[in-house]
Amino acid sequence: xxxASEFRDPSLARGLLAAIVDQADxxxxxxxxxxxxxxxxxxxxHSIFRYGLDKLIHPGVEFxxxxxxxxxxxxxxxxxxxxxxxxxPEVIFTTFGDAMRxxxxxxxxxxxxxxxxxxxxxxxxxxxxxxARRNPGREVVFFGLGFETTTPSTALSIQxxxxxxxxxxxxFCNHITVPEPIKALLDDPFMVLDGFIGPGHVSMVIxxxxxxxxxxxxxxxxVVAGFEPTDLLQSVLMVLTQIxxxxxxxxxxxxxxxxxxGNPVSLxxxxxxxxxxxxxxWRGLGEIDASGLRIRARYRxxxxxxxxxxxYGAGPRDVPEVEGCACGAVMTGRIKxxxxxxxxxxxxxxxxxxxxxxxxxxxCAAYWQYGGARGVAAE
Length: 379
Hints:
Layout: H1 10-26, E1 35-41, H2 42-50, H3 53-56, E2 61-68, H4 76-86, E3 91-95, H5 109-114, E4 119-121, H6 125-134, E5 139-146, H7 151-164, E6 169-175, H8 179-186, E7 195-198, H9 200-206, H10 212-218, E8 222-224, H11 229-245, E9 250-252, H12 264-273, E10 274-276, E11 279-282, E12 286-289, E13 293-295, H13 304-308, H14 327-331, H15 363-370, H16 373-378
Parallel strand pairs: 1-2, 1-7, 3-4, 3-5, 5-6, 7-8, 8-9
Antiparallel strand pairs: 10-13, 11-12
């Protein structure tokens, strides 16, 4: 690869679209009886809408938007706990920008900041480490968010803090994993899924074999995909070809970035620092066994839940969702964002009710920004 433009070549895209039409017709896909392909990653959802692939593709292929937005699937109770930490006078609370405006039951981190809490946006946990070095009299807490993509950087930062004995640095760990919620969706009898477009950035860390169960146990094809338009079109074609040929395997369209067995350095750091939680709550999916990570006992002093007595086991966690907000149904692919009664009415990017409208990977944000949905919402 020399340039991104190579993966945005109109002539190549036209050829892929023609091949998709051939395969979709071969398996009898129609608008009335479509093939349902779930793009797991929210980044893919945004690319699909940014490049208009949903409008260009065969009418018998329907994209189902998956739960691959780590900010979006964070339950409201965890946002409330983040705000609770941020409001402590001794704490400098650091977070990625996506999480600043996600509403909790009482307020968002941005609203807590406006009320006087010391909340700072950072681009990396290394920024939080530097704040801890410069502010030895303050407790610096990093909001550890994300799938396997961001988990290694947090793990490496905790290892570095341990080497430096930075006792004023800790992580509020909300790292989660991709394969477990996909299994939960496949076990849902109301979900109709014919194939998957697998997350490219996650797979860069974990490789392709963690998805073997999708093909082996459920007979569904999955293709790990890149994020450019021709990446996604080729991946759809590969899924359709598997269906047409009666195959179900894991294929790697994004081989220029994704190694088969993942990144060994990243995986080693994650294994050293983290262990599986018995269960973790996902917004829209509920509790999913072994789907979240927690900090191992050897690094307990860097665990904000242990240090400040919050999180699982620290008290009741029954926090109701906003009435009429359908984030859970959108994240699990049961409905499109425009079917939510709050979309564009009670919930907009300026005044969001849910994370899907503010996250850079949220499906509602994609519909609002690229899907012409503002007009739909105004109707």
